[in-house]
Amino acid sequence: MTPHAAIGRRALLLGLAMSVVLSKPVPAGADSAVADFIQDLSNAAITELQFGPEATDIDRAVRLKPYLEKYFDMPGIAKYMLGAYWPRATAQEQEDFTKALTDFLSLAYAKRFASYNGHELTVGRVRDEGDGRATVFTKVKLPNGEPARVEWIVKTEPQPYRISDVRVEGLSLAETHRQEFASLISNNGGKVGALIEALRKKTGM
């Protein structure tokens, strides 16, 4: 599988995970508050992000963006994805990148809502990582009936809870984009502005 195909598969699975109905309660003894947070995201997506056949990718992205802003730690994710380039960026570039990244992810994941809704997601255990984070282990039932592992990394301190990363089949979406973005910046003389412009061109938002 090529890198782009792998990214596409993980994005598809994340889109599925955000648009499913949770099918099982959290096991006794698990951190139900963190699991409920993931359930709230899923329930909101399946009930409020319904689209007719006339909806465009941009229409879906515009509707999805507030959910990324509400449930995901977008400033923290942006900082992580820029890596060593974050402290080199100006305050304005950091702000612009966070906005461009949110638009980029909104469009990337909104495309998955065109065809995939209502699939089953089963919540397993919740693991406290001990550093203000917890991992919620889930399984998403694919259209072909096979299960796929999706792990939600939730920032629990300070509250409110926010998702800081998603691992699909063991692969981190944040890490994947971090490597992709670092390569683009490096190929453009270390200029963060080049990445921001590239993301804006991809989204048109």
Describe the structure.
With 205 residues, this protein is an alpha+beta fold. It has one domain (3-203): Tgt2/MlaC (Nuclear Transport Factor 2, Chain: A). 50% of the residues lie in helices and 19% in strands. It has 7 helices and 6 strands; from the N terminus they run H-E-H-H-H-H-E-E-E-E-E-H-H. A 6-stranded mixed sheet has the order 1-2-3-4-5-6. A hairpin with a 6-residue loop joins strand 4 (147-155) and strand 5 (162-168). Helix 3 crosses helix 5, helix 4 crosses helix 5 (91-110) and helix 5 runs parallel beside helix 7. It is globular. The model is unreliable at 21-25 (pLDDT under 50).
Report the uncertain regions: 21-25
In total, how many beta strands?
A: 6
Spatial shape = globular
CATH superfamily: Tgt2/MlaC
Mean pLDDT: 81
The order of strands across the largest sheet is 1-2-3-4-5-6
**What name is given to the CATH topology?**
Nuclear Transport Factor 2, Chain: A
Keywords:
6-stranded mixed sheet, globular, 205 residues, alpha+beta, 7 helices, 6 strands, Nuclear Transport Factor 2, Chain: A
Short description:
The chain is α+β, with helices and mostly antiparallel strands and about 200 residues long.
Write the layout of secondary structure elements.
Elements: H1 3-18, E1 21-22, H2 32-48, H3 57-71, H4 74-82, H5 91-110, E2 120-128, E3 133-141, E4 147-155, E5 162-168, E6 171-172, H6 173-186, H7 192-203
Helix pairs in contact: 3-5, 4-5, 4-6, 5-7
